[in-house]
Design brief:
Radius of gyration: 18 Å
Distance between the termini: 15 Å
Largest sheet: 7 strands, parallel
Helix content: 25-40%
Oligomer: single chain
Number of helices: 10
Structural class: alpha/beta
C-alpha cells in the first residue's frame, strides 16, 4: 500500500467509503464486518463514514457503530460527517445549524468510542444556514478538542476558500463527487492542490460501477468509458483499478474512497494504489485533456 498526506497524517492512498454497508441493499452484518476488516488487512488506513448512513427512518449511526466495532484497537483514521439525515421517506435532508452539528458530533463521538474524532466533516452546505456559521461549529469543536481535524464535503470553490479562511490549517480535506463519469469538480480539485488540502473523491468509480446511491454496484457497459476497460484488459487488472489509478495520478493530494460491500471488492480497490499508469495510458483516459500539473 502506498501512502498520502492528509493534514500532517499519513494515510493509505486508497480509503474505504463505508456507506454501502448500512444503507439500502446492505449486506448482512457478518459480511459487512468482514469487508471492513479485509480493507484493514489490505493496508487501508482511512475509513469514511457518517451519522446518516443508515436505513430510512432508522436511528442515526448504524455505519459508525459498525466501523468502530470492526476496527476496534486498529491504528487508523476514521472520518465521519454530520449535517445530513435520512427520514422514513428515504430522502437525504440537510441541517447545517451549528447546534445540530455540535449535537451530531457528540453522538458520533460516543458511537465511535473515541476521545476525539480524527476527521469530522460538514456533510453538505445547508442553503438555509449561512455557510460560515456551519463551519464555525467545526471551529468550536476543534477548539474544544472534540475533533482533531476538519473537512468539508459537497462544496464549491468559494465555500472551500471561506472554510479555509475560518479554520486555517485545521481544514485538511474536501470531499466532493469525482469520477470518470462526473468531472465537474475540476476547479475544486485545483484549489485543493493550491491550498494543500486532501481531495477525497466520493463515488469515485462512477461510469465503471454504479454509485451506492443508485443501487447495487455493477458495470455500466457504456462505450464512453471503453478506454478504462481496454486499459484494464491490457494490464490484466479490473477497470475499477484503472479508474482509481487514474484518480491517484490527478494529484498527490487525491485519496479516493471507493465503497464496497464485499471483501473481494475492497481488496481489488486497494490494489489500485500500486498501479502506476503510463503517460500514454493517462492521455488515453483523458479525452478532454483534463488533468492537473504536478500529478504523481
Amino acid at each position: 500500500m502506498r501512502y498520502r498526506t492528509l493534514g500532517e497524517l499519513k494515510v493509505s492512498a486508497v480509503g474505504l467509503g463505508a456507506m454501502p454497508l448500512s444503507i439500502e441493499g446492505r449486506p448482512d452484518e457478518e459480511r459487512a464486518l468482514a469487508t471492513v476488516r479485509a480493507a484493514l488487512d489490505a493496508g487501508v488506513t482511512l475509513f469514511d463514514t457518517a451519522d446518516s448512513y443508515h436505513l430510512p427512518g432508522a436511528e442515526p449511526g448504524h455505519n459508525e457503530r459498525l466501523v468502530a466495532r470492526a476496527l476496534a484497537g486498529a491504528d487508523v483514521l476514521i472520518a465521519t460527517k454530520g449535517g445530513r439525515g435520512r427520514p422514513a421517506d428515504g430522502s437525504w435532508t440537510v441541517n447545517g445549524d451549528p447546534r445540530h452539528l455540535k449535537r451530531a458530533a457528540e453522538g458520533s463521538l460516543k458511537r465511535l468510542g473515541v476521545e476525539a474524532i480524527g476527521l469530522y466533516q460538514l456533510h453538505k452546505p445547508d442553503p438555509a444556514v449561512p455557510f460560515e456559521e456551519s463551519v464555525g461549529a467545526l471551529r468550536e469543536l476543534l477548539d474544544e478538542g472534540k475533533i482533531r481535524l476538519a473537512g468539508v464535503s459537497n462544496t464549491d470553490v468559494d465555500q472551500i476558500r471561506a472554510a479555509h479562511g475560518i479554520l486555517g490549517d485545521r481544514l485538511v480535506s474536501v470531499q466532493n463527487r469525482y469520477s470518470p463519469e462526473v468531472r465537474d469538480s475540476e476547479a475544486e480539485l485545483r484549489l485543493c492542490a493550491e491550498l494543500g488540502l486532501a481531495f477525497l473523491p466520493w463515488s469515485p468509480l462512477g461510469g465503471l460501477s454504479r454509485s451506492s446511491l443508485d443501487g447495487p454496484s455493477g458495470l455500466t457497459g457504456s462505450v464512453r468509458f471503453a478506454a478504462f476497460h481496454e486499459t484494464a484488459a491490457e494490464r490484466g487488472v479490473s477497470p475499477q483499478q484503472v479508474g482509481l489509478a487514474w484518480l491517484l495520478a490527478k494529484s498527490p493530494l487525491v485519496i479516493p474512497i471507493p465503497g464496497a460491500s464485499r471483501p473481494e471488492t475492497i481488496r481489488n480497490s486497494a490494489g489500485a494504489a500500486e498501479l502506476v499508469l503510463s503517460g500514454p495510458e493517462l492521455a488515453r483516459l483523458e479525452p478532454l485533456g483534463q488533468g492537473l500539473p504536478g500529478g504523481s
